[in-house]
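Record 1 of the preview.
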Amino acid sequence: MGRRRFLALGALLAMPHIASGADYPPVRPGVTLQFPRDLGSHPQFRTEWWYITGWVRDTTGHDYGIQVTFFRNRPNVAEGNPSRFAPRQLLFAHAAIADPRLGRLRHDQVAARAGFGLANAAEGTVDIAIGGWTLKLVGDTYVAHIEADEFAMDLAFATTQPPMLEGDRGLSRKGREVVNASYYYSLPHLRASGTLSMPGGVARVEGSAWFDHEWSSEAMAEDASGWDWTGINFDDGSALMAFRMRDRTGGPLWADATLRSADGRSREFAPDEISFVPLRRWRSPRTDVDYPVAMRVSVGGVEYALEPLLDDQELDSRASTGTIYWEGAVRVSAAGREVGRGYLELTGYFKALKL
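->
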């Protein structure tokens, strides 16, 4: 997509909103998520993302972490302008491969305004494209194709479980005020397979992944700086999503978690039943940002230790979404025994995050 396009897009995002006569719809309690309708884009809302993270292993037994994320943003800038060039929807994508042998992420990012047959996020199903970066739902399988500068991904993620509704039946609170919320569901235990193309060759891989889809118009409270999030696929078939929002001092502002047991029953936990405690920190040699890359997460009195596949899993996305964050593959232990694998996301440590 080119650095010039990123710079132009950054200038566009920095512009003040121009009145368009259209408001963002709020997230409302009592709305029932419907499938397949809610698989696709919700273009009237401000922000939306489709997130896949996972662990895969090649035929030699080497482990990788993988991340594929597509973002959609409605900037609400001059929506009454009839020009096809009017930026009614902006699309971004990040992709990364965590490889311990390299010692850092291979990652890349793209961005474009929707339209012209080059970029689009369809409604009613998952069908998202930004040039050579695509994510599509084919039957019950999510198919990702990523053409990055230093690597490529051709991966299929087959669903094995029904959607896991986060929060209160799909309404996920992000703060004390009801307005700070999103619609949010996950698909744990995706069966991953395909190829990773990197300098030196092509690796055929298989493993397990996690899918998130979330959309909102005003997800973060004014006094929030960022969040710590984890999605864990446990070895027994159960799954856990947990996050905490941090305030401007780094303290807890809000928290939520959903645990789905192996038999399919789900339970949501209250904020006072959830804690994130750093176990070890790592400072980036590139950005000087300090991250708690190893974490103890407690949910409902059960403690899980999260240890990263490698410390350097930092993504510098200032050219697209405007921030730096840490998104890493982690091993998960309880009572001294490995019980699952997942991903840990750490935002707002570079500076307070703004969606």
